[in-house]
Design goal:
62% of the residues lie in helices and 12% in strands. The chain is built from five helices and three strands; from the N terminus they run ααβααββα. The chain has a three-stranded antiparallel sheet. The chain is globular, with a radius of gyration of 19 Å. The relative contact order is 0.12. InterPro entries: ArsR-like_HTH, HTH_ArsR_DNA-bd_dom, Metal_resp_trans_reg, WH-like_DNA-bd_sf, WH_DNA-bd_sf.
Protein backbone atom coordinates (compact mmCIF):
# COMPACT_ATOMS: atom_id res chain seq x y z
CA UNK A 1 0.00 0.00 0.00
CA UNK A 2 1.36 3.43 -0.89
CA UNK A 3 1.54 6.26 1.61
CA UNK A 4 -0.52 9.41 1.15
CA UNK A 5 1.28 12.31 -0.53
CA UNK A 6 1.12 14.47 2.60
CA UNK A 7 2.87 11.72 4.56
CA UNK A 8 5.59 11.36 1.91
CA UNK A 9 6.11 15.14 1.99
CA UNK A 10 6.37 15.09 5.79
CA UNK A 11 9.03 12.38 5.56
CA UNK A 12 10.97 14.44 3.01
CA UNK A 13 10.93 17.46 5.34
CA UNK A 14 11.95 15.29 8.31
CA UNK A 15 14.90 14.12 6.25
CA UNK A 16 15.85 17.74 5.61
CA UNK A 17 15.45 18.59 9.30
CA UNK A 18 19.12 18.27 10.25
CA UNK A 19 21.69 21.07 9.87
CA UNK A 20 24.43 18.76 8.59
CA UNK A 21 22.15 17.39 5.88
CA UNK A 22 21.23 20.89 4.75
CA UNK A 23 24.92 21.85 4.70
CA UNK A 24 25.75 18.78 2.59
CA UNK A 25 23.04 19.73 0.09
CA UNK A 26 24.39 23.28 -0.07
CA UNK A 27 27.89 21.97 -0.72
CA UNK A 28 26.59 19.72 -3.49
CA UNK A 29 24.85 22.57 -5.32
CA UNK A 30 27.73 23.20 -7.77
CA UNK A 31 28.04 19.51 -8.59
CA UNK A 32 29.50 16.19 -7.40
CA UNK A 33 31.91 16.27 -4.46
CA UNK A 34 34.04 13.56 -2.89
CA UNK A 35 33.45 12.69 0.75
CA UNK A 36 36.89 14.04 1.71
CA UNK A 37 35.89 17.51 0.42
CA UNK A 38 32.63 17.40 2.36
CA UNK A 39 34.56 16.45 5.50
CA UNK A 40 36.93 19.38 4.98
CA UNK A 41 33.96 21.78 4.84
CA UNK A 42 31.87 20.34 7.68
CA UNK A 43 33.37 20.13 11.16
CA UNK A 44 32.09 16.70 12.24
CA UNK A 45 33.48 13.23 12.69
CA UNK A 46 33.68 11.07 9.56
CA UNK A 47 31.27 8.53 11.08
CA UNK A 48 28.68 11.26 11.70
CA UNK A 49 28.98 12.54 8.14
CA UNK A 50 28.65 8.98 6.89
CA UNK A 51 25.40 8.57 8.85
CA UNK A 52 23.95 11.80 7.48
CA UNK A 53 24.95 10.91 3.92
CA UNK A 54 23.29 7.52 4.35
CA UNK A 55 20.03 9.19 5.39
CA UNK A 56 20.14 11.46 2.33
CA UNK A 57 21.00 8.53 0.08
CA UNK A 58 18.20 6.30 1.45
CA UNK A 59 15.70 9.08 0.89
CA UNK A 60 16.85 9.47 -2.70
CA UNK A 61 17.88 13.12 -2.31
CA UNK A 62 21.50 12.32 -3.16
CA UNK A 63 23.19 9.51 -5.03
CA UNK A 64 26.72 8.23 -4.69
CA UNK A 65 29.17 6.59 -7.04
CA UNK A 66 32.83 5.65 -7.13
CA UNK A 67 35.33 7.67 -9.10
CA UNK A 68 38.67 5.95 -8.81
CA UNK A 69 39.39 5.72 -5.10
CA UNK A 70 36.84 8.38 -4.12
CA UNK A 71 33.19 8.08 -3.22
CA UNK A 72 31.37 10.95 -4.89
CA UNK A 73 28.02 12.42 -3.90
CA UNK A 74 25.69 14.39 -6.12
CA UNK A 75 22.14 15.75 -5.86
CA UNK A 76 19.71 13.28 -7.39
CA UNK A 77 17.65 15.97 -9.10
CA UNK A 78 17.96 19.69 -9.85
CA UNK A 79 14.66 20.12 -7.98
CA UNK A 80 16.69 19.95 -4.74
CA UNK A 81 18.27 23.26 -5.78
CA UNK A 82 14.79 24.74 -6.18
CA UNK A 83 13.84 23.51 -2.71
CA UNK A 84 16.94 25.07 -1.12
CA UNK A 85 16.28 28.34 -2.95
CA UNK A 86 12.66 28.31 -1.78
CA UNK A 87 13.85 27.81 1.79
CA UNK A 88 16.10 30.85 1.50
CA UNK A 89 13.26 32.95 0.07
CA UNK A 90 10.86 31.86 2.80
CA UNK A 91 13.40 32.61 5.53
CA UNK A 92 14.08 36.00 3.98
CA UNK A 93 10.39 36.88 3.96
CA UNK A 94 9.75 35.54 7.45
CA UNK A 95 12.73 37.38 8.90
CA UNK A 96 11.75 40.58 7.08
CA UNK A 97 8.21 40.26 8.44
CA UNK A 98 9.57 39.61 11.94
CA UNK A 99 11.76 42.72 11.80
CA UNK A 100 8.80 44.79 10.63
CA UNK A 101 6.60 43.46 13.40
CA UNK A 102 9.30 44.10 15.99
CA UNK A 103 9.71 47.69 14.77
CA UNK A 104 5.94 48.16 14.88
CA UNK A 105 5.79 46.81 18.44
CA UNK A 106 8.58 49.16 19.55
CA UNK A 107 6.86 52.15 17.94
CA UNK A 108 3.47 51.42 19.44
CA UNK A 109 2.87 52.72 22.95
CA UNK A 110 0.84 50.28 24.98
CA UNK A 111 -1.70 51.73 27.46
CA UNK A 112 -0.87 51.03 31.08
CA UNK A 113 -3.47 49.43 33.30
Amino acid sequence: MSVPLYQAKAELFRTLGHPVRIRVLELLQPGPRPVRDLLAEIDIEPSSLSQQLAVLRRSGIVVSYRDGGSVMYVLSTPAVLDLLAAGRRILGEVLTDSKGLLAELKDRVEPRS
